[in-house]
Amino acid sequence: xxxxxxxxxxxxxxxxxxxxxxxxxxxxxxxxxxxxxxxxxxxxxxxxxxxxxxxxxxxxxxxxxxxxxxxxxxxxxxxxxxxxxxxxxxxxxxxxxxxxxxxxxxxxxxxxxxxxxxxxxxxxxxxxxxxxxxxxxxxxxxxxxxxxxxxxxxxxxxxxxxxxxxxxxxxxxxxxxxxxxxxxxxxxxxxxxxxxxxxxxxxxxxxxxxxxxxxxxxxxxxxxxxxxxxxx
Length: 232
Hints:
Elements: H1 7-19, H2 23-30, H3 40-51, H4 64-70, H5 77-89, H6 93-102, H7 113-125, H8 129-149, H9 151-156, H10 160-170, H11 176-182, H12 195-201, H13 209-229
């Protein structure tokens, strides 16, 4: 641990610990995060905590003004999933609908694959299944095109994750087994997909053997990472 670490460092480190399932180690770090301070880092920490079912002094919805104004209705996947989870838990579907209304149009393509994936999930849970499928199809098709044209770049930028997720939302279920088998690099760090995040995003297909296999790979890689870094 750095001496007098910045809030940026603490929030990122905290999120990484939760992502590998090092909940005990993360708890010790959480007390150093200033959740009442301004800026993006307390919001980042709150999102990470909520995604992983960990209690924090503030919740994602308490940072909603930040997401709407400072981040201009971001569709960052982590933020979107944490907001969706909390609105479901608190039965605030109107909040989700209002947030979707505030999202400005942007091109659905490789360059916006992360935000496009967030939008796809947001539309799905905001009861806009047709829009969600349209977004997913556009994203999947552009990622597929890019993979064919620039396979090395596709792997380098880790585009297999949105490719896999969008296949489900687009209804391309005949493609997911092939993606899981062939498109994840041998050295892929599955823990970066965050178990709880992936479990939620793909809960509509939780019995699909490919989802079950991916979650198992994430768990295994989490254990590897915890052992490597000596975290619990």
